[in-house]
Amino acid sequence: MGSLPLELFQPLDPDVFIKESHAVVDFIADYYRGIEQYPVRSQAEPGYLSKLLPDTPPIFSEPIDTILEDIKKDIIPGLTHWQSPNFYAYFQANASTAGFLGEMLCSGFNVVGFSWISSPAATELESIVMDWMAKMMKLPSMFLFSGGQGGGGVLHGSTCEAVVCTLAAARDKALTKIGHDSITKLVVYASDQTHFTVQKASKIIGIPPCNFRVIPTTAYSGYGLTADAVRSVMEEDISQEFTPLYLCATVGTTAIGAVDPLLELGQVAKEFGVWFHVDAAYAGSSAVCPEFRRYFDGVELADSISMNPHKWFLTNMDCCCLWLRSPTELVDSLSTNPETLRNKPSDAREVVDYKDWQIALSRRFRAMKLWLVIRRYGMAGLMEHIRSDVGLAKHFEKLPRFDDDDDDDGLKMNIRLLDAVNSSGRAFMTHAIIGGRFVIRFAIGTTLTEIRHVDATWRLIQGIAKGLLLADHS
Ligand SMILES: Cc1ncc(COP(=O)(O)O)c(C=O)c1O
């Protein structure tokens, strides 16, 4: 066995960096050029990869070309192609050139801006970008650093983290008043359309699972949560000596994009003194267009708002914006001050130390990525991005003619149809159960989707449906 010539081991040599990163960029560009040749949903079987890769890691260095070949041969077949123009499943996870370049810069600098002093530009750019983003979405000035009312924002990796942190702040604020032993009395409220992340977060912060209220919605309210329903559940809880803690409203539910009425719900939240969080992970980006901003009316009553630029805002994973009316409450809950991290600006409380606004200590320079996206595309480009996707969705809406066929056969046929479309590899959609009915979702919004893809997928769906019906009747 040979020995490694350590003097040659230079993992950050700029010349090698140029050569190998160019090879990777070329590889990714080829991937995008040919993305439509792959089955949208991976057709791999569970465990496929362990049959292809060696059991043990290599002892010696391998060339980048060999590794890229293996990615093509072994990894790509196991990818579900979220950037395919024929991906209509779950939710959008927009990639873009600016998002990619921002991610590259974030990774290239690889700074860890947990406190201001550990990388001042990372912290300050994040605060500026959070204010920019809030201005683009026309959020009330109380959520901006520059609003002068104590508000501000932070970038997290996911909505789940944002919800955990805001729930922790709400919990600690409440328990300071009613005593720490009363945690079993705290209750969290959401609708049957709220993303499960809220239930998970409430469990993580120690709310007993039986104190998570899932309030039903109906077609009558467009599957939005009604203020009356929330009020009556809260009154019932109070009569049982529980303490309402946190209400989550959603702008754009994951399953069908339902919108909860923020104004009415915010008023109920104020009435009962509960923390009011607005989850706009999925549809929040639409607020940059004036014609969609109305869905945020009432947001001024929120204690916190979150949205994911990594969904529908051309920002490659991961990036979640969280704004707070009173970040001090979050910091009170999450801050620690170990001696090793002490420094003058932090001790003087002159600066933002984002380690106290999140769960982890370490953090990525995500602001660089969002800043690049906003600068490269500008407000005009970003509005165009949202509008063109909404236009495609409206176009699709006009195509199908639905039978209101709600029987068992209809349900089974829909399940078979979805399975057949996804197995064809030519499109990928997912389902939801809404009001007890099985619904096939057609979630338009990948960066590469054009009208021709929507039309072709509709023809595919029709063709497969006809084939299934004919097979049943032959
Ligand atoms: C409305 C809504 N909330 C929360 C989430 C979860 O987001 P994350 O994966 O960033 O935690 C999603 C993801 O689909 C969502 O659509």
Describe this entry's structure for a reader.
- With 474 residues, this protein is of the alpha/beta class.
- It has a domain at 111-364: Type I PLP-dependent aspartate aminotransferase-like (Major domain) (Aspartate Aminotransferase, domain 2, 3-Layer(aba) Sandwich).
- It is built from 14 helices and 10 strands.
- The chain has helices at residues 14-33, 64-75, 97-109, 120-136, 159-178, 197-204, 227-239, 262-272, 309-312, 327-334, 344-347, 366-398, 408-424, 451-473, and strands at 87-88, 152-156, 186-191, 212-215, 243-250, 275-279, 304-307, 320-324, 428-434, 437-441.
- A 7-stranded mixed beta sheet has the order 2-8-7-6-5-3-4, with helices on both faces.
- α5 packs across α10 and α7 packs parallel to α8 (262-272).
- The chain is globular, with a radius of gyration of 25 Å.
- The chain starts with 13 loop residues before the first helix and ends with a helix.
- The mean pLDDT is 95.
- Bound molecules: pyridoxal-5'-phosphate.
- The site of pyridoxal-5'-phosphate has 14 residues, from α5.
- Pyridoxal-5'-phosphate is lined by residues 91, 158-160, 195, 197, 250, 253-254, 279, 281-282, 308, 320.
- Keywords: Aminotransferase, Transferase.
- Its EC number is 2.6.1.57.
- This is Aromatic-L-amino-acid decarboxylase protein.
